Please model this.
Amino acid sequence: MTKYIPTIGVECHVQLCTKTKLFSEVDNDARLKQPNSCVSPVDYGLPGMLPRLNGEAIKFAIRAGLALNAKINLESRFDRKHYYYPDLPKGYQITQMFHPIIGEGYVELPNGHKVRIEHAHLEEDAGKSSHESSYSLVDLNRAGTPLVEIVSQPDIHSAAEARDYAKELWRVMTYAGVTYGDLYNGNMRFDVNISVAPEDSTELGTRTEMKNLNSFRSVERAVEYEIKRQTKLLEKGEAVIQETRGWNEATGETTGQRSKEDAKDYRYMPEPDIPPICLDSADVEAEAANLPKMPSWYRQKFNNVLSQDLVEVLLDYPNLMAKLAELEGNQAATKKVANLFSSVLLAEENTSLLNDKLPTKEQLITLVEMNDNNELSSTATKEVFIKFFDPEMHYKETRTIAKELSVIQENDLGALEEIVNTVLEKPETQKAQSDFRAGQEKVLGFLVGQVMKESKGKANPSAVQKILREKLR
Ligand code: MN
Model:
């Protein structure tokens, strides 16, 4: 039977987190704001209003391009893309159709596979329509928000890889600091096009497109569904129709929406109200100097120190990665702190702490040292660690916190021996002692427990065990 190979390309719209909009001076952060409260006459498209380009958006676009390992085009231009819709009051979108600011680049997936970027361009977002039963509502808070649209080459060949690419784009853009990356609120939206073709074919098959997917999971599921649907059609000898299809999250299916015949003619024309963007290489270098470390940098840095799975989990939290990188060179400490992050901080009951200030490098290193020296058991280490996030405690030194919690283990052998002697003199331990001497290993646990109790939990259990063994020989 013929094997069919899927080929997938992704276009991703990223909302930039600039202070103001792309062409007007109103607040670009509409979170928690009333609908239509962050809208200027420019965004309403009122007659006579002129757009003024936001310099911060250009900087963010450069930074996004650098994060995509892409060439920055020193000259780029805007065009008008015409279509009529209630959430686009001007009747056209200002975009970069012919001369985008970001040229060819690539994104490297965790498995090392590179997905090439064809280009990426700056454009404005439209408003948001919501359709009720007998009427529709339009919110223009989002109209004029700067977007970078990232267009990939068709370098993706499975649903899982499409998901990985979407996720890596999200990581790269959030690490670069150009977007809030809030997927729930549509900060990143994925358009996915898919075709399948027989393995030995030299041409790609007919493709379909699914627009505005807003989660990694829906990208994966939609692609999976479409690959199956198209493969089935081809196996039956039927043709795939080139069309835009809608993804239904609830049913897990795609349905036909708009075929190529009614594809729009956008009547592109150069935007006359905005001059071309002319950069010089110093503008690009300045952004390169400010570019935060990227996920691939962390992957490489922790390659031989942490497991790949642990790195991938922690990569979802840029501040944790940055903190780990501060422990530079101290591999053992990096390992222990990474494990505390994943086992304590990312535990369901503690995820709220992620928004808090992280412990200092000094606090963490002392914590690891105290654990290494058996001054803190692993349980006590976790107890102290969690106090780093306690508003009453977080500013204190590690040792002070451990003392206040009275969890520092007694390691002084002389002191421990005294406690052991006290316990061995007690009548209730006599039977256990003779049982142990008679070869019953398991009663040692009971005796260690008695010593721990006597020390109020501060004795180091392995040291106690050693002393007991010597004394009961
Ligand atoms: Mn677009």
The chain has a mean pLDDT of 93. The two ends are 74 Å apart (CA to CA).
